[in-house]
Amino acid sequence: MTPEQRLNDDERSVLKSISPVSLQESLRSRGWELKEDLSEQWFVLYERGGVMVDVPLNPDFADYARRVGEVVAVVAHVENVTVRALVDALTQPVGDAHRNDSEIPRTMIIDGERDAANAPSRVGVRSAHFKGYELTSAMVGIGMLFAAPPNGNSNIEDTLLAASEEGMERDDLRVLGVLVDWFDLHGSRVIVHRLTKLVQSSHSDRVQALWSALAQRRPQPRRSARILVRAPSTVVDLLRVGSELQLRRRGEDPRFAGTALRVPSGVLRNRPEDVLAPAELAKVHGAYRWRVIMGPSYRADMWAALQQDPTVSTADLARRTYGPLETAWQVKRDFAVLPVPVGAGVVSLGVDESSLAVARRRSSLPEGGETH
Q: Global pTM?
């Protein structure tokens, strides 16, 4: 994209989503200096190396997207980067733009998606902080058989982190037991690069210890990428009180022996029937289904989101799925070539209540009540 090019609807939507504040913050972080404040005329001037750009200040102006495009084109030329890379950086959630994977301590490893070696740095923090009944519904939506209405649109990684916080920080051992069973069965369908970022963002030694332990328990396929999970400096006890006594009486849970988390035997129940099988989960969760087809990736989640709402803009698609803008562009293009209508042999993002009801009966769970 150059300043002279006409913008299509997707490009205009993306550029219009860049706020004046985030644009100026990005310029300053890249060495551009405020040269003149002309805010009374709705723009400011920034300079670097003798090159000037004027930053528009009112997104409501009709030419706002075009003027942001001019700024982006000039900055990309001066810094010798691609326009797409620069736009991708500008549309990241605040706090992720300058994060480097090298900041994660290289202690624990976990297997991940096939292209994780080239995984994007644009990974958003959670848009949802689940709690209480909302969390229960999100967990049911991804196949954990608690008694609650399902949220079939719940993001898998958001829900996993929220469930781990519920189990480790609020000591809900029932949730934790089902989470461990879920990860044993479905861990290969997780976008591990994103989950790693979320675990790092939790700033909880107990949560990080859990995911480090789960990482240690997983086999390491030869060709899978090695994704790092931050681990605490010491082993963490699952039980805050009485752990030593329980360990002497019952011994250690063999599933966690030698990991970053010490769990007395019998504390976490092991009931795989409390989790939907892959074939059943693929019927009721659209993003999971496409991860089975394409592999765990942002592309799979974007395809599922487009199947639910084909009119979503490129920028909103990237935000909803936490993926890179360039991938969103590509998926929108491919989806337009080979659209997959809901109902044509493909399950939508909505949850099939009948499948969940059958699964609940199999697991002997009550139809009423909550987990908390």
A: 0.64
